[in-house]
Each structure stands twice: as structure tokens, then as C-alpha cells.
Amino acid sequence: MNLLAKLNLILVLVFAVGLIPAALISRDLLAANAETQVIQNARIMMETALAMRGYTVSQVRPLLAPLMESEFLPQSVPAYSATEIFNSLRENHPQYTYKEATLNPTNPRNRAVDWETDLVNEFRRDENRLEIVGHRDTPLGQSLYLSKPIRIISEDCLACHTTPEQAPQTMLAVYGDGGGYGWQMNEIIGAQIVQVPMSEPVRLAGVAFRRLLLVLVGVFVFTLLALNLLLYYVVIRPISRLSVMADRVSRGDVDVDEVEIHGRDEVALLAGSFGRMRISLAKAMSMLEES
Hints:
Mean pLDDT: 83
Helix content: 55-70%
Order of helices and strands: HHEHEEHHEHH
Structural class: alpha+beta
Distance between the termini: 45 Å
Strand order of the largest sheet: 1-4-3-2
Largest sheet: 4 strands, antiparallel
Number of domains: 2
Number of strands: 4
Strand content: 5-15%
Radius of gyration: 40 Å
Shape: rod-shaped
């Protein structure tokens, strides 16, 4: 194996050793960045739901209050309004979901399923916990969910959810008396849950990771080619010429042309030493012939 091949092999091995940890770190960073973006999207969705609830309480409910004596209008309920907004969003983006999962709901569509019940119970076990983030597999792919507790902090809520006897008769006519009663102040009765798809961000992170690897490999190949050219013209070719000259001199051919290498680097110094050695050897042989 010649010198250039050995140098290339060493460079390839060094690059491979460095590429493995760099690839692992880059993959983890890209995956973490994708998850951070998804969490940010989930928080925006949650803030949108909270804004819709606030809008319903402050502006929609007062307008509908005069009509509630004769007919219960679910549009006056903050949870209903927020859910309806996101149901409209799901018509074009079914992988995005929002639900106010409740253990004892008035509206049956808000009843918590098994995994949602676990989240509500987790908030109940640790009442200081304000948020839960996790992953779950869905028929549409992996999703990230973000959940916040629903706590009774207003006496207005208890007006409809203490007992069926105290609840508005118009609401009873719509939902009956099967659920949504017995709530208490400061009780965590459910959880707001938004789900955001992870498949697309994960795919984009994978694409970015592969592109990064291709760029790194491309830069390495370009650098390797440049180093090969540099080594060939600065080191390998001069040394090869010196090797040919030394071989001919060792065979007694002292008339071989001197290898001229300009510069002050080690190769140029070596060429000068070979040239002086050839001249000294030629003079020594000439003196031996004369004697």
C-alpha cells in the first residue's frame, strides 16, 4: 500500500469515528427540536381554546342569557364553544383534536375515555401539577398530547352542576339528569386535552438528518480530494522523483539530473540534501577513478 493510500485510509477512519457521534447527536437534536415545535403548536391550540372560552363567557353568554329562560342554548357553554371551533378545524385536519374530557359530564361527548381518565386522576393526585405532555399512538399516527386540569373556580359553574333540582329546567330538557351534577368548588372535574400529530415533524426531522449526513459526507469527499491533490503535488510527486534519483545513484548513475524543488519546506530540504549527496558521491567516485 503506497503512502497516499495509507493517508486516505487514516482520514476515512478518522472521519468515520467522528461521524458516528456527530450523527447521533444531530439526530437527537433534530428530534428534540421537532418535539419542541409540536409542543409549541399544542400550547397555541390550548391558548386558542382558552381564548374561545373567555370570549364565550364575556361576550356570547350575556347576549344569550335572555333566551335561556325558554330554551337552553349550548353555545353559551364555554366548553361547547371551544370544542365546536376545533371540530370545524378537524374537517380539514382530522389529526388535530381538542377535548374537555370530564369524569362526570353534562354533555355525553365530553365523557373521558380510559387514557383521558388517567390524566384527570393524575391531576387529582397532584393538584399542583399544571400540565402533562406525552405521546400516544392513534389510527392516524403518533400524536403528542398536552393536557391542563379543569378546576371549578367560579360559583357560576355550580349554578348548573350542583343538583338537578337547582339546574335550569331548559338544560335538563336537553341533557337530562344523568350526569354533570355534584361538582364542588376547587374540584378538578376533568382535563383539557389537545393532540397534535407527530408524524410530519418526525418525517421532516428525518429528512433534515439525512440531508445533514449527505452534506457532511460531501464536504468530507471534497476535502479528501483537495487533500489528495495537495499531497500528490506537494509531497508524493517530489518524493517519487527523489526516490527514482536515489535508486539510479545507488546503481552508480551519478549523472542523473538533479531534482529541483523550490521552497523551504521539509521536502525541499530533503531534495537539497539528496542533491548534495549526489554531488559528493560523484566527486568521490571521480577521485577513486583518478587514483
